[in-house]
Design a protein that fits this description.
Elements (H helix, E strand, L loop, with lengths): L8 H13 L10 H11 L2 H8 L6 H8 L4 E3 L14 E3 L2 E3 L3 E3 L12 H12 L3 E3 L7 H5 L7 E5 L5 H13 L5 E4 L9 H6 L11 H4 L2 H6 L15 H13 L4 H7 L1 H12 L9 H8 L4 E6 L2 H9 L4 E4 L13 H12 L5 E3 L6 H9 L4 E4 L1 H32 L13 E4 L4 E2 L7
Parallel strand pairs: 4-11, 5-6, 6-7, 7-8, 8-9, 9-10, 10-11
Antiparallel strand pairs: 1-12, 2-3, 12-13
């Protein structure tokens, strides 16, 4: 029997204000700006940069957030909103709300419990969690914390088809209900904050647990590299990094140190992670590998959306990777309406990148999104208070979304439409065609 999650925005407000009567502030900041600022205080400079940073001058990342401000919500009056239903249905399953947790890799840099903590919060709130290929724990360990809560698996398709098939099979065996193929990361973007600090967590053995726990990868470790990888120059820092890498790797420290296996694993990961040859025809291979629904993540152009449909995908995630891949990229919310138009109700279209509030969620849903993903907000909650911090972020996001719905005259998600929005064209406000109530 599937668990239900009962939630009320009014109860959430009361909970916070009642704590305030006892001179207790919320467990984590409600304001996104303050949430990020507090997370910056507790994280190392390198780890905060890896989470908060974007590509180049980070204008693309800023575009994601700023583009929401071009829309105005137009509340509609005198509708009965005494009862509210946030639930949606996707792939035959009823979900508690349209909110989903995006796949975010190497989140052990935010909290040692990483994906385990996120899984616990997701299960408690019945929020779908898209588990990353770059998770800090194996899929099997993560899903063991989730009971019957909805979970999907996000796939990075590297140079090894056999490893891809193994990841997919493990996801199926772990109860994942969909495969999300990320297609915007054939190469890592030019991430200036990380480059200035010379910091890449993967080279320290972080965020590669899916690989080191995989039997196919364990075989690949012993195969020659496809291209030479330079070694760091000997130094105290390099020695410290090597020792930490051996401590982190499964098994006996001294055995690892003398076998060199942890360093071989990192070098093999770097060698096979990206796949610049990945193309549309590979979707056929993926379809042959699983019966689960396949969603494609990273679509921004309507022609790509149409091609994805032509190849039989079951869903599209509109995303620019949180502004981490291409600077000056189109904001995901700007791309959303054209993708929705192409999908034309045939498959769900999920919005990702730049969502910072429940009002942002409302705008995305009004523009036709089937559901909405958040990334950095829950990672900051994780950094501050672990599983409890993630749960708080989810509840705050849902509370604002529910209040925005009801104050705009909607009692069900399906009632949200473009008729609740005005568009700021820079020359005054234009009114989209009114639909719904």
């Amino acid at each position: 029997m599937k668990k239900s999650f009962k939630f009320s925005a009014l109860d959430r407000q009361k909970e916070i204000f009642m704590r305030g009567m006892g001179n207790r502030k919320p467990l984590i900041p409600v304001s996104y700006a303050e949430l990020e600022a507090r997370a910056k205080e507790v994280l190392s400079e390198e780890n905060f940069a890896s989470i908060a940073g974007g590509a180049g001058k980070e204008q693309g990342m800023a575009n994601n957030v700023e583009a929401f401000s071009k829309w105005r919500i137009v509340p509609r009056m005198l509708n009965d909103v005494s009862e509210v239903d946030l639930s949606i249905e996707m792939f035959g399953r009823k979900l508690a709300s349209p909110l989903m947790l995006a796949p975010v890799g190497v989140i052990e840099i935010a909290h040692r419990q990483a994906d385990i903590a996120v899984a616990k919060a997701a299960a408690k709130t019945q929020t779908p969690f898209i588990i990353s290929s770059q998770a800090s724990f194996p899929t099997e360990r993560i899903t063991a914390e989730m009971g019957d809560a909805p979970r999907w698996f996000q796939l990075y398709w590297g140079k090894s088809d056999a490893l891809m098939e193994s990841f997919v099979d493990r996801a199926e065996q772990s109860g994942c209900e969909a495969i999300v193929l990320t297609v915007d990361t054939k190469l890592a973007g030019w991430r200036v904050r990380d480059l200035d600090l010379g910091h890449l967590p993967y080279l320290r053995g972080k965020g590669i647990a899916q690989y080191t726990s995989d039997p196919i990868f364990q075989q690949l470790i012993h195969e020659p590299l496809s291209s030479p990888i330079s070694k760091p120059k000997p130094s105290l820092g390099a020695i410290a990094t090597l020792l930490a890498l051996n401590w982190r790797y499964e098994g006996n420290f001294f055995k690892n140190l003398f076998s060199g296996l942890p360093l071989k694993a990192v070098r093999k990961f770097v060698d096979i992670f990206t796949n610049t040859a990945l193309n549309w025809d590979d979707l056929t291979k993926l379809r042959e590998s699983t019966k689960l629904p396949i969603l494609i993540k990273g679509i921004l152009h309507p022609q790509d959306a149409q091609k994805a449909l032509d190849y039989g995908v079951d869903g599209i995630i509109v995303s620019n990777h949180g502004g981490r891949q291409v600077d000056y990229n189109i904001a995901a919310i700007e791309a959303l309406p054209d993708i929705v138009r192409v999908a034309d109700g045939k498959v769900p279209v999920i919005m990702d990148s730049g969502v910072r509030s429940g009002a942002d969620m409302f705008i995305a849903m009004a523009l036709g999104a089937s559901a909405v993903c958040i990334g950095r907000p829950y990672v900051y909650g994780l950094a501050l208070k672990g599983a409890s911090g993630v749960e708080e972020v989810i509840k705050n996001m849902l509370a604002e979304f529910e209040l925005t719905m009801r104050l705009s005259g909607c009692s069900r998600v399906g009632e949200i439409s473009k008729g609740h929005l005005w568009r700021d064209s820079g020359e005054g406000l234009s009114i989209p065609e009114r639909t719904g109530h």
